[in-house]
Predict the structure.
Amino acid sequence: MTSTEQPVPAGPPGAPVRGLRIAAGLAGFTAVAAGAFGAHALSGVLDAAGRSAWQTGVLYHLVHAVALLAIVSPPRHPRRALRLAGACFLGGIMLFSGSLYALALGGPDLLGPVTPLGGLAFLAGWALVALAGLPPRSR
């Protein structure tokens, strides 16, 4: 750190991890609820394409909820790249799965371009997970 750089306040210890852990639990809960809702409440409502889109949204939602939980579970203080990956996964769930849910329910077509943005967020998250596995740079 140079003499002109100021340290960034960290906030309460563990706050970012705790928030991501809560988000992981909520993401897992809502993924299971969305799967059940799609299987029961929407079974006679959606056509085949709508059901397929809904199921794809649920699959990616649940997979990334588990990935988010895995990121915040092992270390007491995960590396910054893992915290950023968690944020990417959470954003990806909202954008990718959320847009698919909305489209399956007849939402506006303008949501179509949102889906790949969520996919990019998922990809960024996975790239950050890989980056976090690299050895730390020497200072």
Remarks:
- The radius of gyration is 18 Å.
- Helices lie at 15-40, 48-72, 80-104, 114-132.
- The first helix runs from residue 15 to 40.
